[in-house]
Amino acid sequence: MNANKPYLKHLTSATEGLAKDFHKACAAPASHVGILLVGFETPRFPISASDIDRMKHNAGYGQHAWSEHTDSWPDGMTHGSKVSVWFWWHALGSNAAAGEQPHP
User: Fold this and answer.
1) How far apart are CA 18 and CA 56, in angstroms?
2) 5-63 pLDDT, tens per residue?
3) Rounded CA gap, 18 and 30, in Å?
4) What angle do CA 6, 43, 52 make, to 5 degrees?
5) What is d(CA 4, CA 8) in angstroms, rounded to the nearest whole number?
6) How buried is 90 (Cβ within 10 angstroms: 0-12 exposed, 13-18 middle, 19+ buried)?
7) Which of 3, 35, 63, 80 lies 20 to 30 Å from 24, alpha-carbon distance?
8) Phi, psi dihedrals of residue 100, rounded to the nearest 5°
9) How far apart are CA 61 and CA 88, in angstroms?
C-alpha cells in the first residue's frame, strides 16, 4: 500500500483542499451547510488529530459555530485498517444567530 502523496495538500491547504471547502460552504446561498470527510486509514498511514486540527485552522473553523460528529469502524478487509468519518454542519445567516441546527 502506498501513501497518498498529496494527502496533506488535499486535507489542509487553504487554497486547494478541504479547508477551502469550509470557506466556500460559508458563502453558499443556503440555510445550512455540511461537510463530510471520509478517510481510509491503515496503521502505517493514519489520519492524525493534528492533521485535522491543521485543516480546521486553515479553514477558519473557529470563526463559525460548526457542530461536529466523528465515527470510525474496521474496514473489514485489512487487519488494523479502518474507515473514519467526520461530519461538520453549520447554520448560516439568521439561522446561525438563532442557534438553529438541521434535523438529523
Assistant:
1) 9
2) 788 899 988 888 899 999 899 899 999 999 999 999 999 999 999 999 999 999 988 88
3) 19
4) 50
5) 9
6) buried
7) 3
8) -70, 140
9) 10
What pTM was estimated for this model as a whole?
0.82
User: Alpha-carbon distance 56 to 49, whole Å?
Assistant: 10
CA distance 82 to 76: 8
93 residue type, one letter: G
pLDDT at 103 over 90: no
Encode pLDDT of 66-96 as tens digits.
999 999 999 988 899 999 999 999 998 766 5
- Beta-carbon contacts of 83 under 8 Å, excluding residues fewer than 6 positions away, are 38, 39, 40, 41, 72, 73, 74, 75
- The H or E element spanning position 22 is helix 18-26
